[in-house]
Amino acid sequence: MSIKVVNLTKSYGKQRVLSNINFEIPAGQITGLLGPNGAGKSTLMKIITGYLIPNNGEAKINQISLANNKINAQKTIGYLPEQNPLYDEMYVREYLEFHRNIHQLPSKRIDEVIDITRLEKEAHKKIEQLSKGYKQRVGFAAAIIHEPKVLILDEPTSGFDPKQLVEIRNLIKEISKSTTVLISTHIMQEVEALCERVLIINKGELIADKMMNNFNSYKQQIIEVEFDYRVEKVALEILPNVDNVINTKGFVYEIYFSTEIDMRPKVFDLAHDIGLKIVSLNKVNQSLENYFLELIK
Ligand SMILES: Nc1ncnc2c1ncn2[C@@H]1O[C@H](COP(=O)(O)OP(=O)(O)OP(=O)(O)O)[C@@H](O)[C@H]1O
């Protein structure tokens, strides 16, 4: 199922927190919503899930308007809010039973979600006895119990240790095979690890909408340089952190570096040392981090 957001604007009192947001996420895509603290990510998600009403514009889930047909749209949405609200005094199974009843699902669905979220060993415990990671799994289990076609996850991995982080990310990847997922975060590596596409929001405005294959992996950088004359590839390969050098045309070379440090000054120095002039010098592909930081500067 798709998510469509049209001309969405939201203010809290006099503070405008979303301005004219437009995007469409096709069925089956896993998309990151990236933005600094206070950018408006949670507000946008609350509107997409029908918990908040926008001042202008609308959100649609697979063509169903949340404004006109909220209940039907919500039946197809799973939502894990940032605070992961749980009833701590309930037992895990009891809590999931509560959600199963709301959705009027067969009882075998409880064991299925316990299995998917690897909660078997903790299912007999009270929620208050669980670690943060396992509490989050309970939140996931409740969010997916009705097999939603669209899953909205608001900062689902914040505060986890590295081992739990990997487990939760794997869980999200697994779920995303059958579900359209929108996941908010301010962690770039999260988007790199999970998403096919990234929406960047800052001060309530959508400032970028990119497919992740436009970016280098976290620690890679490609510099395109044109010299005034031919140079042997081996002469460029002596630069530090070089992975590869490709002569793309004429006197133009792409140099692949395995570092986040900006290597353009080193290329300048080398050209000077070997007596070449630089005609042009560009970073071809940026890391998501550099792109993000430049955008929100
Ligand atoms: N219920 C509310 N009433 C008034 N202002 C609010 C309310 N909820 C959020 N805001 C304000 O709206 C702005 C956007 O908040 P929002 O929680 O949507 O941002 P966010 O990108 O999710 O931030 P974070 O990454 O810190 O969770 C902030 O300035 C916040 O203080």
Walkthrough of the structure:
The mean pLDDT is 90. The chain is α/β, with parallel strands linked by helices. The strands form three sheets. The chain has a six-stranded mixed β-sheet with strand order 6-7-8-3-9-10, with helices on both faces. Strands 2-1-4-5 form a four-stranded antiparallel β-sheet. The protein folds into two domains: 212 residues, P-loop containing nucleotide triphosphate hydrolases (Rossmann fold); 75 residues, Alpha-Beta Plaits. β4 and β5 form a beta hairpin. The chain is elongated, with a radius of gyration of 24 Å. The site of adenosine-5'-triphosphate (ATP) has 12 residues, from α1.
Order of helices and strands: EEEHEEHEHHHEHEHEEEHEEHEH
Helix content: 25-40%
Mean pLDDT: 90
> At the fourth CATH level, what is the homologous superfamily of the largest domain?
P-loop containing nucleotide triphosphate hydrolases
Q: Using the CA coordinates, give the radius of gyration.
A: 24 Å
Which structural class fits the helix and strand makeup? alpha/beta
- At the first level of CATH, the class of the largest domain is Alpha Beta
